[in-house]
C-alpha cells in the first residue's frame, strides 16, 4: 500500500487489517515516522518523537498478533499524545520552559490503558503552554502550524494533535479540554474531537489547568475512531477523585443507528451570534442534512447561557492561578507573555466571586437538564470563525472569545463533539458542535456519525494528500 | 455619568505580594484594566439569581433520570 493511502486510513480500518495480518504494525509505524520526518519540519506538531520505542512496540505487536494474542480493535495503531500526559521515561513538558527537563517515572493511567489496548505511542505533541490558550503559538518550542494553511494556527491548546492528525502523521491522539482545547483544534484542522462527560476519563498523571473544568478526550479523523479511543480510556480510576464510577462501555454499539426519531435542539441565545457568514451557512446546511436524515429540530432557550463565559473565566483563572502559584512566585519570567498575563489576573478574583461562578455553574446545569427533557442533543457551530492567522490577537472577553460556544459545556460537564461540516471560501475547515446529556456520549457519537456518513468531508489537509 | 475610580496600583502590587507574586508598577498598570473588567462582569453574574441557589458540587454532573 502506498504511503498516502495508508495515512488516509482510519484507525478502525487499520486495526481491522492489522488483525487480519494484511498489514504489519511495523509497516504502519514506519509509514507514520516517515511522514513525520517529511511533513513535521513545516508543522512543528511533535515536541518529541519516540521512533525507536515505537518501532520496538510495533515489533512486539506484530509478534502478539501473529501468536493470536490480539488485544482489540486498536492493536498496532500508532498515536500521538499531547505533551501533557505523563509518559514513563519520556520527557513531558506541558509545552513549558519550566518543565523542559521533566521526565515522569510512570505513565498516566490513560496512557497505561492505551498501551494495554495495543496502541503504539509515536511521540508527544505540541500544545499551548500549560494548555492555557487556544493557538499553540508556543514561545518555547515554536509555533505549531495548521496543515490547511501554514500561516494559520491549528487551534489549541491541543494544537499539535489537530495538526498531526490533519497531516496524516498519526491516526489518533489524546487531548485535554478545559474550555474547548480538544474541539478548537478539531474544528480548525478539520478533524473530530470529543470532550466526554466530566469524570468519564480519569485525569491522573495529566498536568491540571483547572480541576473543575479539565476533561481528557479523543481526537481523530472520523467518528468511529473517536469512539474506539474513548472505549480504550474511559472508566473509573481511584487516582482521580472526580472520576465517575462507571466502568468501560462500548461507545461504538449505536454508531450506525442514524438519527431518525431524535430531536435536535437549536439553542438560543448566544450560539448563532457573530458568526462568519460561511460558518453560519455551513452549520445551517448541516442542520438541514440532519432533518433530511429523519431528525426533528426545535428551537430551545437556554435562559442564562450568556453568563456562562464570565463564570467559566472566573473559575478557570482562579484555579489555574492557584495551581501555578509556586512557579509564578519563583520564576515568572519562565512563562510566555500571554500565559503569565492570564495567570496574573487570577490572583485578584475574590473567593466570593469564585463561589458565585460556581452558583451559576449549577444554574446552567439545571437549565440544560430541562432543555434535554425536550431535545436529545444540541447542535451549534463549534466556533464562530475558521483558523486565524498566526500572531492575530485572540480575545478572552466573553462576547468576543472564539471559544464562547464551547466553554458552556465545560461548565455543565456535558459531552460535546466537533465534527467537520465544510470549508469556508478560503478552503479552511468549519466545525459543527453536537452536545448531549451527561454520560450520553453514545447519542452524541451517533448523531455525529450519521452526519459524517452523509457528508464525508475530507479530513486530510491538501498538503498531506499527495 | 459618574466614573468609577480605578483600583490603586499600590493595592494591586500588595495583593499580589501577599500571595507570593511579584508585580512591578508597569505590569500592575497593564493588569488593572483587565482585573477591573473581569470584576465588573463578575459583579453582575448573579444578578437575579435566587438567593437559595448553591454552588455546583465538585465531580461529574448528574445522570439524567
Automatic annotation (TrEMBL), chain A:
Its EC number is 6.3.5.7. Residues 27-445 form the Amidase domain. Keywords: Ligase, Transferase. Pfam families: Amidase (PF01425). The keyword NAD does not apply. One of its GO terms (molecular function) is transferase activity. InterPro entries: Amidase (IPR000120), Amidase_CS (IPR020556), Amidase_dom (IPR023631), AS_sf (IPR036928). SUPFAM superfamilies: Amidase signature (AS) enzymes (SSF75304). It comes from the Bacteria. It is an enzyme of class 6 (ligase). PANTHER family: AMIDASE AMID-RELATED, TRANSAMIDASE. This is Asp-tRNA(Asn)/Glu-tRNA(Gln) amidotransferase subunit GatA. It comes from Eiseniibacteriota bacterium. The gene is gatA.
Amino acid at each position: 500500500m502506498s504511503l498516502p493511502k495508508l495515512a488516509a486510513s482510519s484507525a478502525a480500518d487499520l486495526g481491522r487489517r492489522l488483525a487480519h495480518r494484511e498489514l504489519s504494525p511495523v509497516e504502519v509505524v514506519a509509514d507514520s515516522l516517515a511522514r513525520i520526518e517529511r511533513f513535521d519540519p513545516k508543522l512543528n506538531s511533535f515536541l518529541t518523537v519516540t521512533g525507536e520505542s515505537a518501532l520496538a512496540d510495533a515489533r512486539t505487536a506484530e509478534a502478539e498478533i501473529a501468536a493470536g494474542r490480539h488485544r482489540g480493535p486498536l492493536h498496532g495503531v500508532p498515536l500521538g499524545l499531547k505533551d501533557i500526559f505523563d509518559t514513563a521515561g519520556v520527557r513531558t513538558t506541558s509545552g513549558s520552559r519550566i518543565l523542559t527537563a521533566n521526565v515522569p517515572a510512570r505513565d498516566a493511567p490513560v496512557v497505561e490503558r492505551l498501551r494495554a489496548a495495543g496502541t503504539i505511542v509515536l511521540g508527544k505533541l505540541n500544545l499551548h503552554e500549560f494548555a492555557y490558550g487556544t493557538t499553540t503559538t508556543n514561545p518555547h518550542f515554536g509555533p505549531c502550524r495548521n496543515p490547511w494553511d501554514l500561516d494559520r494556527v491549528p487551534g489549541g491548546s491541543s494544537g499539535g494533535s489537530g495538526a498531526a492528525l490533519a497531516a496524516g502523521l498519526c491516526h489518533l491522539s489524546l487531548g485535554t479540554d478545559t474550555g474547548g482545547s480538544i474541539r478548537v483544534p478539531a474544528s480548525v484542522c478539520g478533524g473530530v474531537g470529543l470532550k466526554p462527560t466530566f469524570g468519564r476519563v480519569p485525569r491522573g498523571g495529566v498536568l491540571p489547568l483547572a480541576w473543575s473544568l479539565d476533561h481528557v478526550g479523543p481526537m481523530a479523523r472520523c467518528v468511529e475512531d473517536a469512539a474506539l479511543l474513548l472505549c480504550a480510556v474511559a472508566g473509573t480510576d481511584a487516582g482521580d477523585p472526580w472520576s465517575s464510577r462507571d466502568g468501560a462501555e462500548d461507545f461504538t454499539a449505536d454508531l450506525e443507528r442514524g438519527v431518525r426519531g431524535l430531536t435536535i435542539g437549536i439553542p438560543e441565545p448566544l450560539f448563532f451570534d457573530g458568526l462568519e457568514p460561511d460558518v453560519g451557512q455551513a452549520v445551517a446546511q448541516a442542520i438541514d442534512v440532519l432533518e433530511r436524515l429523519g431528525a426533528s429540530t426545535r428551537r430551545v432557550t437556554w435562559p442564562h447561557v450568556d453568563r456562562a463565559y464570565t463564570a467559566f473565566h472566573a473559575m478557570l483563572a482562579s484555579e489555574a492561578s492557584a495551581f501555578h502559584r509556586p512557579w509564578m512566585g519563583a520564576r515568572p519570567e519562565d512563562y510566555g507573555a500571554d500565559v503569565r498575563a492570564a495567570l496574573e489576573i487570577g490572583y485578584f478574583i475574590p473567593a466570593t466571586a469564585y463561589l458565585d461562578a460556581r452558583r451559576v455553574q449549577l444554574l446552567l446545569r439545571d437549565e440544560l437538564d430541562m432543555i434535554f427533557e425536550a431535545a436529545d442533543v444540541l447542535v451549534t457551530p463549534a466556533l464562530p470563525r475558521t483558523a486565524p492567522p498566526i500572531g492575530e490577537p485572540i480575545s478572552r472577553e466573553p462576547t468576543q472569545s472564539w471559544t464562547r460556544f464551547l466553554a458552556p459545556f465545560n461548565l455543565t460537564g456535558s459531552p460535546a463533539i466537533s465534527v467537520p461540516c465544510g470549508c469556508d471560501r478560503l478552503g479552511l475547515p468549519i466545525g459543527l458542535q453536537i452536545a448531549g446529556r451527561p454520560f450520553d456520549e453514545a447519542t452524541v457519537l451517533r448523531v455525529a456519525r450519521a452526519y459524517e456518513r452523509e457528508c464525508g468531508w475530507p479530513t486530510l489537509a491538501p498538503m498531506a494528500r499527495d | 455619568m459618574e466614573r468609577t475610580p480605578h483600583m490603586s496600583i499600590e493595592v494591586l502590587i500588595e495583593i499580589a505580594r501577599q500571595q507570593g507574586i511579584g508585580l512591578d508598577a508597569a505590569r500592575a498598570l497593564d493588569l488593572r484594566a483587565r482585573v477591573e473588567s473581569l470584576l465588573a462582569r463578575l459583579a453582575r453574574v448573579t444578578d437575579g439569581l435566587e438567593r437559595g441557589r448553591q454552588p455546583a458540587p465538585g465531580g461529574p454532573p448528574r445522570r439524567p433520570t
